[in-house]
Amino acid sequence: MGRKPKFNSAQKLSILKEAKEKGIYEISKKYSINNRTIQQWCLLYKYQGIEGLKSKRTNQSYSLNFKISLVTAFMESGDSLLNFAIKNGLKSHTQLYNWIKRYNRGTLKAYQPRKRDLNLTKKRNSARKTTFEERLEIIEFLIKHDINYHRTAEKYDVSYAQVYNWYKKYTKSNNDPESLRDNRGKRKSIETMNDLERLQIENRLLKAQLEQQKMEIAFAKKLVEIRNRGGKKN
């Protein structure tokens, strides 16, 4: 039986609210918590919501394809290890760090799930068919939510690899929405959309980018405020 967590999700959220008002340093002393732990909770809540603050009692299983996709995406991201790991559904950077080490050594393997986890694993890694409009909506959501592949895949019931590959195609095409079309089978003309349709779609995706930039700026300001309050008390 695992050790009972010191704080439940509701208590963690309450501590985060206190840290926002009074600063990390004061609150970390009050509750005997490391500053980095509070900062990690802050990221968990930002990217995973209240679910991210809950302690898991069982190990989650991940396929080899998922691990490789995540490691590859991190190497191309330029993001910090902790931020990227939490943004993509992990609880900390440790798991991703270990996967990167094993990937570089050529020893990365899939976790062998128990029987009761098999159905969940199959569902998470299965690729379903999607329409062009669905893929547009998925990429729009992905951009709005800080390129969070894990959250996007879960929301739209598609695989991590699908979301990753669609976004890669989109960015490689210089943000051309036509790149999200599935051209297998019938070969469709590149001019499938008229000018108005293209402008409307490009406008949707541009708005998503602007929304995300505003959210990033607001979050960065809050984090600076919290750290400044903590520094003054130090």
TrEMBL record:
Protein family: Belongs to the IS150/IS1296 orfA family.
Protein name: Transposase
The UniProt record lists the keyword Metal-binding: no
Pfam families listed in its UniProt record: HTH_28 (PF13518)
Domain of life of the source: Bacteria
Single GO term (MF): sequence-specific DNA binding
Organism: Ligilactobacillus hayakitensis DSM 18933 = JCM 14209
Domain Insertion element IS150 protein InsJ-like helix-turn-helix: 134-188
Database matches in SUPFAM superfamilies: TrpR-like
UniProt feature coiled coil, ranges: 196-223
Keyword set, alphabetical order: Coiled coil
InterPro entries in the cross-refs: InsJ-like_HTH (IPR055247), IS150/IS1296_orfA-like (IPR052057), Trp_repressor/repl_initiator (IPR010921), WH-like_DNA-bd_sf (IPR036388)
